[in-house]
Amino acid sequence: MVKIRIINAPPYRLESMGRLLLMVSWFTSLTTAAGGGSAPSAEVARGEHIARLVCSACHVVARDQEYPPLLRETTPSFLDIANRPGVSAQSLQHFITNTHWDDQKIPMTMPNVMMNKNDAHAVSLYIMSLRTR
Prior knowledge:
two-stranded antiparallel sheet
C-alpha cells in the first residue's frame, strides 16, 4: 500500500488529490481481471457492449437485456454457452469468426456476423465472464 503524505496543502489540492486517488482506484478496478483473473474488465465490458448490439437479436446476452431475441426458435443464452463443458474463450472466438449461415439446413445455424478478431475476442471474454461453474 502506498501512503501519501500531504502537509499544509490548500483545500483545492486535497480535493484534487482525492479525485486523483479515486480515478487511480477506478482505473485499477477496470484493469483487474474479470471472471477469475482471466481478462481485463474493460475488454469484457467492450465484449458485452458488442454482444448487446450484434448478438442480442438472436441470443439472451444479459439478464437485463432490453429486448428479447427476435427468433421464434430459442437459441442458447450466453450464460448457457459459458457453462457448457469444454467451452473456452479460444473456442468461442473460433466459432464466432468461422460460422456461416446455411439457409438450407434446418434448424438454421448461426450466421456469419462478420466480426473482426478483436471484437470476437472481446465477446468471447464477455461470454466466459458469465461462467458460474
